[in-house]
Amino acid sequence: MTFRARHLLGIEHLAPEEIRAVLDLAETYVELNQRTVKHSDALEGMTQINMFFENSTRTQASFELAGKRLGADVMNMSVAHSSVKKGETLIDTALTLNAMHPDLLVVRHPASGAVDLLAQKVNCAVLNAGDGRHEHPTQALLDALTIRRAKGRIQRLTVAICGDIAHSRVARSNLILLGKMENRIRLIGPPTLMPSGVQDLGCEVYEDMREGLKDCDVVMMLRLQKERMDGGFIPSEREYYHRYGLDAEKLAMAKDDAIVMHPGPMNRGVEIDGELADDINRSVIQDQVEMGVAVRMACMDLLARNLRAERGARAVGVMV
Amino acid sequence: MTTLLTNARLIDPEGLTEIPGSLLIENGVIAGVGDVTAPKGATVIDCGGKCLAPGIVDLGVKIGEPGERHKESFRSAGLAAAAGGVTTIIARPDTNPAIDNPETLEFVTRRAAEACPVRIRHMAALTKGREGREMTEIGFLLDAGAIAFTDCDHVVTDTKVLSRALTYAKSLNALVMGHPQEPILSAGAATTSGKFASLRGLPGVSPMAERIGFDREMGMVEMTGAKYHFDQITTARALPPLERAKANGFDVTAGTSIHHLTLNEFDVGDYRTFFKVKPPLRPEDDRIAVVEAVASGLIDIISSMHTPQDEESKRLPFEDAASGAVALETFLPAAMRLYHAGQLTLPQLFRAMALNPAQRLGLPQGRLATGAPADLVLFDPDAPFVLDRFKLNSKSKNTPFDGQRMEGKVLGTWVDGKRVFPGEA
């Protein structure tokens, strides 16, 4: 077994073999998910709680489905609307849930590092479903699986990540994962949406999108969040679309077989041309959603195995 | 009461020397230094060759009275100071309510006198409620014993208010202390921008915000001629303008904090909130530049910037956690890191930790000379230990040095000739 992690807090803590272990196992779940009877008993009897301190429909649905297909009892908590409003701290919420003995805790939180903090206080496996601008590891893993299936490999590719890099946890996790798998990474975006010191992290930074897309194998677009659109970071939505929106003309700079990705939800006509997003020859956006469920099943399966091994070892008094 | 401390390594921050010798205390005053012998009836204490230096004068200590006594009281801060070799606390007015009127100042002065075993002097707010709108009663506050005026980490953004307050303070020869930081640029920042902040996904502020704040305040000083102290200079970029300001003869001094001298941004690691201070920890290049500026004397004063925070304020996601670290007891051992690294000598350290702050504030302390008050610290710079935060005297235990190996132990602290640490067994 090459996957040793107790929690999945970020790609930063994973070794390349662990990433490969997740992707390999996920392949089997892709296959399972295409059958009529989509059921496994990997999490049979286990309890999974999805704790979302930030609204999300897609990620939460994906985790919920993944857990249910693996046979877990799944509970969703939208914490953004409940006890946090009453002044309860993150730690107290975590301790309360911990007392209910969940086995897997899926957490999304608007503050960077909040999921790490929570993981220190509970004794189940914690999956980071996105913390602030820090990491979103399952997104990077599902992107990796999508790329591997489309390109036949997940190394020695030129990957462009475009748009709002500064506020994107998806960009960070992908940057780390693709770097660990030895790919060439280009970051493309306006300087106001580029994190400082990023050129020291082993990637090339471009302000000109056409230049940056030259000969790329993979083009990853990021969502531009509404609150960044006017005022502060960019002059206007239309200027952004003109300079950084992906359309057929800009995509022509990339390799002829380059694939287009987007973590969703998309702003059609802001960061990506609507027709291009639907082009089944270039866009793998729907595949990403499909891979999402499989990758999340793989992650939870692997964490559950480690959890069982740890508990079994503790029961017979072995040091772990 | 006469005491002779013999066989000591005397750390003299005025002459920048360290020589073996003795020191005689008579009636709370240093009566002789160097080659002195015990008069009849004197208590003789053998220092065992350890270091004897003027007690630390710590400019900018936060105490929780009034308002946050659960975080730190005058008693707990005083005990921590005594155990850390700090003989004079210069307390900050960023309490709740702020110390911005003579009545509140009289209250804290009385409370401190009852409870605090070391000397303590209070600063007062420069503007009412530290809100930057109206100046405080600077004259009355001076009469009531305010030693300097500061809004602490609140920057007075209204330049009209600031210019009037500085002009008024200047007429009374009062020292004003400011926090060089551009408040809009640094709003919401939890780290210094750069590779580390980007990797951790934390909002960062450019080190330039300090320089912009510095330039703005320096402009106000040039306009008003006020006597001004910059509380914390922590970046390389603010050093050249500081050097120019001093060369141009303005009455300005600058300080920095022991944390910015001994830690850098990477120490935050996996969101460790005890390392969240204000301004945020800096890259290593900045730390080195600031250490060199202390060695050259460009930066005058090192402070602990003691800021007690309870567990609840720190057990939060990094962005939401409160800033600040307790430091009264770890100040000296942290400073010894700079000594052991060969970056600062002991006399240079005590120049910045005792002599310069005392002189800037017009206090007679900080000197190891005949006639100076007998406020002293005896310490072993080499004694190793592992810091356990729960053994600190402070009510709050938020130290970034928890669990770290440190060197430098305080063996004895005297205030006004009386031993305040260790207390009677």
TrEMBL record, chain A:
The Aspartate/ornithine carbamoyltransferase carbamoyl-P binding domain, residue ranges: 6-148
Which InterPro entries does the UniProt entry name for this protein?
Answer: Asp/Orn_carbamoyltranf_P-bd (IPR006132), Asp/Orn_carbamoylTrfase (IPR006130), Asp/Orn_carbamoylTrfase_sf (IPR036901), Asp_carbamoyltransf (IPR002082), Asp_carbamoyltransf_Asp/Orn-bd (IPR006131)
Catalytic activity, EC = 2.1.3.2
Arranged from A to Z, the UniProt key words for this protein are: Pyrimidine biosynthesis, Transferase
Which residues participate in carbamoyl phosphate binding? R58, T59, R108, H136, Q139, G264, P265
- Gene Ontology MF terms: amino acid binding; aspartate carbamoyltransferase activity
**What SUPFAM superfamilies does the annotation carry?**
Aspartate/ornithine carbamoyltransferase
UniProt record similarity statement:
Belongs to the aspartate/ornithine carbamoyltransferase superfamily. ATCase family.
This molecule's function is given as: Catalyzes the condensation of carbamoyl phosphate and aspartate to form carbamoyl aspartate and inorganic phosphate, the committed step in the de novo pyrimidine nucleotide biosynthesis pathway. Reversibly catalyzes the transfer of the carbamoyl group from carbamoyl phosphate (CP) to the N(epsilon) atom of ornithine (ORN) to produce L-citrulline.
Question: What's the protein name?
Answer: Aspartate carbamoyltransferase
Native organism is Albidovulum denitrificans
TrEMBL record, chain B:
Which intervals hold domain Amidohydrolase? 343-421
Q: Name one GO biological process term.
A: purine nucleobase catabolic process
Q: Which SUPFAM superfamilies match?
A: Composite domain of metallo-dependent hydrolases (SSF51338), Metallo-dependent hydrolases (SSF51556)
Q: Which residues cross the membrane?
A: none
The cross-references to Gene3D superfamilies, in alphabetical order and at most eight, read: Metal-dependent hydrolases, Urease, subunit C, domain 1
Q: Where is the Dihydroorotase catalytic domain?
A: 49-235
Which keywords does this chain's UniProt record carry?
A: Pyrimidine biosynthesis, Zinc
Q: Is Zinc one of the keywords UniProt gives this record? A: yes
Name the GO cellular-component terms.
cytoplasm
Give one Pfam family.
Amidohydro_3
- Read off the CDD domains from this record: DHOase_IIa
UniProt name for this protein: Dihydroorotase
